[in-house]
Amino acid sequence: MNAEIIAVGSELLLGQIVNTNARFLSEQLAELGINVYYHTVVGDNANRLSQAIQLAESRADLIVFTGGLGPTKDDLTKETIATSLQKSLVMDTEALDSITAYFHKVGRQMTPNNEKQALILEGSTSLKNEFGMAPGMFLTQDSHHYMLLPGPPFEMEPMFKKYGRESLLRVLAKNEIICSRVLRFFGIGEAQLETEIMDILDRQTNPTIAPLASDGEVTLRITAKHESRVRAISMIDELEKEILDIAGDYFYGYDDTSLIREAITLMTKHSLTLSCAESLTGGLFQSEIASVPGASNVLSGGVVCYSNEVKETVLSVPKEILDSFGAVSEQCARQLAENVRKLCNSQIGISFTGVAGPSEQEDKPVGTVWIGLSIEGHSTQAFPLKLAGGRNGNRVRSVKYGAFYLLKALKELSFN
Amino acid sequence: MNAEIIAVGSELLLGQIVNTNARFLSEQLAELGINVYYHTVVGDNANRLSQAIQLAESRADLIVFTGGLGPTKDDLTKETIATSLQKSLVMDTEALDSITAYFHKVGRQMTPNNEKQALILEGSTSLKNEFGMAPGMFLTQDSHHYMLLPGPPFEMEPMFKKYGRESLLRVLAKNEIICSRVLRFFGIGEAQLETEIMDILDRQTNPTIAPLASDGEVTLRITAKHESRVRAISMIDELEKEILDIAGDYFYGYDDTSLIREAITLMTKHSLTLSCAESLTGGLFQSEIASVPGASNVLSGGVVCYSNEVKETVLSVPKEILDSFGAVSEQCARQLAENVRKLCNSQIGISFTGVAGPSEQEDKPVGTVWIGLSIEGHSTQAFPLKLAGGRNGNRVRSVKYGAFYLLKALKELSFN
Q1: Domains (ranges, CATH) in chain A?
Q2: Which end of chain B is more exposed for a tag (fewer CB within 10 A), N or C?
Q3: What are phi and psi of A141, to 5 degrees?
């Protein structure tokens, strides 16, 4: 099966937003073994959209649309497809109830154009929108499959994963099973990892290995095809073992996990609580922890000690340390980690202090970072980083390194 | 003039990277008054690329290509265009010299396939690549314009800005100026805003108004075309005034600003410092503030009071308040805002407490949020929210509302 992804929205053609939906869907379709041959972006214009639909029908079996399902006059994806396929639009009462309930809940008035969002293509399967109002749709007609998804990624991605993917699997219903697993690495570059496992990479056809680098992490996606799911999984197991024999030191987890999630899992398992003192990162580390459901089991809280005054008064860093070594120093990082742990009465304290940029500070260059780590009953550690990104790149990278050092320390603890 | 942007690269169709080049070029072309009607992404396949070229020639005056100019066998953009336009490829000696010099400089051996990068389409203008090896090209033939740009954004963007744009300006050489301005709104839905300004929307042709909603904000992009820049700007001014007469209460700023940036600007102007107590948002608000350069002028810091213990011990919320009203309450939000302000010795304190989800808490439903705001010398305020997003959607939305209420309070202060 081959597919075309059509994103509808003038905001894309004006360059106001980037088409991340096409990337997400391409990756998802590739995993299902569906070849994507074209992405198309077209504006909120019925005539041009209808030409794009005809063209896609001439070159693809599956057409996935994103965007244009909203309440305004600009939103015309389903209307145009309806005309093109000679289908009418019918009310999805379940979606309408959920839209009405939403307005009731937030206490805002529901304008009539919002009802339009609950209309779906006659004969289509409605795909539930758990994070927004407009439902998606899946329809098969004349040997073509049409999937309509909303434009906002936080609505579209969960809808595809939970409902859209299922519809496609039912259509595919083929004998060959495709299994894939992502191995995640931190602390090693993509080129270096590729060099270390070159021998394995060179001889792979099934399973295949696809390396990808982003945000300081490298992932390897292993994909196996076989008639038997059990055999496909054991093919992946065997290859994973070979890879980890070589590069296991940098490996930290599977699939959609993250350094933060792995650390939370271990802390939860060992009933440990965490506090954070954040200067450089300004709350980003704690915010990342808090973004994971269940974070309240481990995160006591902490202090964003952006100014030196807060470091001194709230976190009791001695003035002499700030005067002699500066706020961006090993000594300060240690004090912050220890003191925040005690202040918040938790077992682990972690701290971040550094020069985010754009200008240097205390005669230390942009990218100088110290991470402190204090664990009850153990001596406090401090880790230096030298980062080369921009202001926010350096903050994000520091948070990743913090999670990496925390995870490493937790793994060592677990052996005791 | 209308344009189509064709990105060439199988890595895009596999979802390994996102097509940020299309966004960049769309924005640049819009500024030049060139209408972009389509984006197309096609893989490294000569047959499909050549079909995409024919199609684009049938519907666009200008075709901008990105990617496929490199040294490997996969890179076939210029070869395919050469075949399609019946042009030969000729050596650009200046580009060849620069490639040779590069290999000399880094001390690596130049393999023969690197020479291929210096070949350009016969009759085209070479566009210098100051951050990589492959030059770009601009060619006009049979009333069509073709621009070929490299794929990596750090090569493509400066090449377009410095050389590509010039080539287009020479071709355009026209009198009409295009000006645009974005008005940003918060606290009003897209459908509601559209309903309120329906009369204005319905009669607009020049300037045009394009609404866009994202992350709880709504923007209106006003675009005017006129021979005189002064007149185009005054056309925008007039329309803006009409819109703000109706919906001014929800308007907060122009173009690329954000609620957080506007609040920082006002606090900086009035030499006010800010502290934050974050339960629900877990540090996200402070992290957003810290992401803006110059944040250290206003952000003292604050406390992430995720556990009730931290609320009590670090932020001195009386146990009776937590017991009688709960942590998610108006009373607690007020205490947190006042106490964090005093603890960190700043003029403004803001607090966030709420039920992020996935489960309810203290018998309060997911999405219940209280924001506290304490300004030195003024009585403390508290604002309730009822949010309907997922866990992280609710946290992000709360941060935006916090910035909105802060900004509103700062604007009222400024009048005193």
Answers
A1: 2-172 (3.40.980.10), 177-254 (3.30.70.2860), 259-415 (3.90.950.20)
A2: C
A3: -150, 135
